[in-house]
Design brief:
About 45% of the residues lie in helices and about 20% in strands. Helix 5 packs parallel to helix 12.
């Protein structure tokens, strides 16, 4: 592209969607590369060492300066690795370059902008003479940037005071958006130091990675703040905020927030202090041993695309992930805040101090951060059952994506911005953390910690590849690389099938592909084999053997006399398990016996999750799986119920529309004992956290599926709140109370709750209200919520969540379809492209159950194919294909599932002896069914 066009193009070009640090799971349509893959990466001819950056932001027109722009000056010190070069390549985007100079000391060297590639965002500078090796050069840029409102780069945000917006600016540079604030070598391997200066209005304050060294009044109502030099770090970790924020600070930790939120910062401040101390002690690497890091600030940003961001010394968060008040936030929200803080603090070592060399190994950053998100929080909150939650949420959660043929390995090539964004998914986060937990249980925690300490010291201030981690692990535990590496380079995971014989059990592994178990894929993994035949065995998570081949034999005396044989103690290994009919019958009998036969709670959760997914994959029949899961009627622990809720949610979307009422009665019956256990009541002050979480799930499912007592209790509580808003609903009951109040309420009840949304000062409360109004059933109210999603009433960061809450309500489907087909232009204007309409319709197609609903969307897409464009139309077409597959699945399994549900709805015989006979007959029938 000609240099004459560069300024215009830089000023108007947009960037692709950025990361969701803690919520990576999202659907996105891959944009095909429009350049050669190698052209998306910078070469290694130039290595920066330091950046001096000066920025002046404008929030209103100021002389010749336009509102929501900033003036910038960047001085980039670099060296060339090869002599004789006459061109320089680096990144820039959305910047209008006014001038560029090149100096070597005091000597000017001729330089001009030769080209800028819109697709790769690489700027090529043409130099008037050959450059010399091992000499420091300075590139000096003067430019104007845009304070956009898309939550990327250096962007604008606001908060309201007395009903009026107060403007501020913040940053989000990961993965590829530092280039929108200053020209730079915007890849993680190009580490350098940074020294920042911000010229601000006197009414604002500024914050960055390091403290302010000097503030100088420069006249015109502005002050120049000069910050200390940063450690050597990657461009994406630089951060700064310009805002009238307060600081709640002690012991070297500070929480930054808008003044009205000062009373919501005490918990996160103490949690940050405690978690930082715990992790730095565990790693034996004090945060303050990096000289530039004399304090840690954590900032609550009103508009933030990611869940949080690990900028070194200035961590940034969505308000929902850091602002907490016990009388207005749920127990789960409190846990999430602590966990997100632990995640970001862990990044100070895994990501900031030691950085993945390129985004193809993002898991080296995010896998560790997700690991400490749970186990780092557990250092200071030991009674929250975080390891139990880790297994169900992380291990079982990533099973879903990793069982599809579209999955990818943890280490996976990426080049384009779209590819880089998409690699921030549950494979990099969840599977990365799960793999680390597997390795820890093989090595032991002590040796694992010793290896990580050595890894950090060896790689400090450098970038890292998996081989660097393997080397440190191998030095402590030889041969561990042979186990770990295949898990990072191979996609997917195995199903281990266990078959009993006269002398023990045979194990066979095959890749588990949810939609294609008839595949010919011969991939094998090293499998950590642990097993239990009695309660005491479940404590041992160190492998009895590492299975490397397709089959393995475990020899045991008198196997037929064992009460059961269960593989994968506490689900430490990343694999599913299926058993022969005899062993499944034994496991089912044990689950129905006293204390669940001593089966560990995590293995009960494993059994629940495996069975529902084995049935979904056609490995076992649905009636068999559901019969085993009847034991849940007596289950009292959170983890198995959470696994059940996850699996039953998927199943509910595949129940035939004509069988929905029968399924609802089944759910009410399944949850009835659990409802009596937890009761519709606020948690006691000293209640076990797992019991509180169990109650939230049980009440939601019981009320959603028509449990009469639950629905009445929820509506009564909503009406009480409606009549007397000064006495609020307990935070841990609000989600179900708000939902049921809106579901059964009137327009006035809706208006009341919506007013609370518009006036509350708590971001966590806003999320609870959005969940509540998502339960609306009336067409006009659903349209009102959709209007709000396309307006400024709901912040951009929350629009997707608000739409998801509507999608989770099956009574909205026809209304959502009508709205999107009628007001698609409004949706485009609010969200930026026709692809967002296609994505919304796609999500709808994944849930609707009738051909009529599908045909309305399909016909609409066909009529508007030219308007929507090829990519969006193709996306909707794929949604129609998914609907067809779901329909085929429903029809295939309807008879079996329907027969099971009908059987459960029939009157059961009375009396203890009849119940005993029923259980025995069930188990006999079960064993026979397994052999079909």
């Amino acid at each position: 592209m000609a240099s004459a066009l560069l300024c215009l193009v830089l000023a108007v070009t947009g960037a692709l969607a950025g990361p969701l640090d803690l919520l990576p799971e999202r659907v996105s349509d891959e944009i095909s590369p429009r350049a050669e893959l190698a052209d998306y990466r910078l070469n290694e001819n130039f290595w920066p060492s330091h950046y001096d950056i000066e920025l002046t932001p404008y929030f209103a027109d100021e002389g010749t300066h336009k509102a929501f722009t900033f003036d910038g000056k960047a001085v980039v010190t670099f060296r060339t690795a090869i002599a004789g070069l006459t061109s320089i390549k680096l990144h820039a985007a959305k910047l209008t370059i006014a001038s560029v100079f090149l100096k070597q000391g005091v000597v000017d060297i001729p330089v001009q902008i030769g080209a800028w590639d819109e697709e790769t965002q690489i700027m090529t500078l043409t130099v008037g003479q050959a450059l010399t090796q091992n000499v420091d050069y300075q590139l000096i840029f003067n430019y104007v940037g845009i304070l956009d409102d898309d939550m990327h780069g250096f962007y604008r945000s606001y908060y309201n005071v007395a009903g009026k917006p107060v403007w501020m600016a913040s940053t989000q540079f990961q993965q590829t958006h530092a280039r929108r604030a200053f020209p730079c070598f915007d890849e993680p391997r190009f580490k350098a130091t940074f020294q920042l200066t911000i010229v601000r209005l006197n009414g604002h304050r500024t914050f960055s990675n390091t403290p302010i060294l000097l503030s100088t009044d420069v006249g015109g109502g502005r002050t120049m703040d000069q910050f200390g030099k940063t450690p050597v770090m990657s461009t994406y970790l630089l951060a700064f905020i310009v805002a009238d924020y307060i600081v709640n600070e002690k012991e070297g930790m500070g929480i930054l927030a808008r003044p009205e939120a000062r009373n919501q910062t005490d918990y996160s401040l103490q949690a940050g202090i405690d978690i930082l101390k715990a992790i730095e002690n565990w790693l034996d690497y004090p945060y303050s041993s990096v000289p530039e890091m004399s304090r840690m600030y954590m900032a609550a940003v009103p508009d933030f695309s990611a869940g949080a961001m690990e900028n070194w010394g200035l961590l940034t968060y969505r308000e929902t992930n850091i602002l907490y008040r016990s009388d207005d936030s749920t127990s789960l929200q409190q846990q999430r805040i602590a966990a997100v803080i632990a995640h970001e603090i862990a990044h100070m070592w895994f990501g900031d101090l030691v950085t993945c060399q390129w985004w193809d190994v993002t898991w080296l950053n995010e896998g560790f951060a997700r690991y400490f998100q749970f186990f780092g929080t557990a250092f200071v909150e030991q009674n929250w059952g975080l390891e139990h939650q880790f297994v169900v949420e992380q291990l079982q959660g990533v099973f879903q994506m990793d069982s599809l043929e579209s999955t990818h390995p943890m280490t996976s090539d990426v080049y384009t911005q779209s590819q880089v964004s998409n690699i921030f998914d549950s494979i990099s986060y969840n599977k990365g953390a799960v793999t680390l937990r597997m390795v820890e249980h093989i090595m032991t925690t002590e040796k694992f910690r010793e290896a990580l300490r050595a890894y950090l010291k060896k790689q400090e201030f450098k970038t890292s590849r998996p081989e660097d981690l393997f080397e440190s692990l191998e030095a402590i535990y030889p041969s561990i690389t042979n186990f770990m590496k295949p898990w990072t380079t191979q996609a997917g995971y195995p199903l281990i099938t266990v078959t009993g014989s006269n002398d023990g059990f045979s194990l066979t592994q095959q890749r588990f592909l949810l939609n294609n178990m008839a595949h010919s894929d011969k991939t094998l993994w090293p499998v950590s084999v642990t097993y239990a035949t009695k309660a005491a065995d479940f404590a041992n998570t160190k492998p009895a053997v590492i299975m490397t081949g397709e089959t393995h034999k475990i020899t045991l005396a008198n196997p037929s006399e064992l009460p059961y044989f269960i593989l994968n103690n506490q689900q430490v290994g990343y694999y599913r398990v299926n058993y022969d009919a005899d062993n499944w019958a034994k496991i089912s009998a044990a689950l129905r016996s006293e204390n669940f036969g001593g089966i560990h709670v995590l293995n009960r959760a494993q059994i629940v999750d495996d069975l529902l997914n084995l049935a979904r994959a056609g490995v076992v029949k649905y009636d068999v799986a559901l019969e085993v899961l009847e034991y849940l009627k007596d289950e009292t622990e959170y983890a198995p119920w959470l696994a059940a809720v996850n699996g039953l949610t998927v199943l509910s979307r595949r129940i035939h529309a004509e069988d929905d009422e029968m399924f609802a009665k089944y759910i009410v019956n399944l949850f009835s004992k659990a409802y009596e256990l937890v009761k519709f009541e606020a948690p006691a002050a000293n209640e076990d956290r797992m019991r509180t979480y169990l109650r939230i799930n049980v009440l939601q499912w019981a009320c959603n599926y028509g449990h009469a007592d639950c629905k009445k209790a929820a509506v009564d509580e909503f009406n009480r709140y409606y009549e007397n808003p000064s006495v609020k609903v307990h935070p841990d009951l609000r989600q179900v109370v708000y939902c049921e109040g809106i579901r059964q309420g009137t327009d006035k009840h809706f208006e009341f709750l919506w007013k609370q949304y518009l006036t509350t000062n708590m971001a966590t409360e806003q999320i609870l209200i959005l969940q509540g109004i998502g339960c609306a059933q009336d067409r006009e109210l659903v349209f009102t919520v959709m209007d709000a999603i396309t307006s400024d009433d709901i912040r951009p960061q929350d629009k997707s969540a608000a739409f998801t809450y509507l999608l989770n309500n099956p009574y909205t489907y026809d209304h959502l379809s009508e709205y999107l087909r009628t007001y698609y232009v409004r949706w485009v204007n609010a969200h930026g492209s026709y692809m967002t309409v296609a994505s919304a319709l796609n999500n709808l197609l994944a849930r609707v159950k009738t051909d009529e609903q599908m045909w309305r969307i399909r016909s609409f897409a066909a009529r508007n194919e030219e308007v929507f464009g090829e990519a969006a139309s193709a996306s909707i077409a794929r949604g129609v294909e998914d609907y067809t597959k779901n329909k085929e699945f429903t029809e295939k399994h309807r008879a079996v599932i329907g027969g099971f549900l009908e059987g459960k709805l029939k009157d059961q015989p009375d009396g203890a002896s009849a119940v005993a006979v029923s259980v025995v007959m069930t188990l006999v029938a079960f064993a026979v069914a397994m052999l079909r």
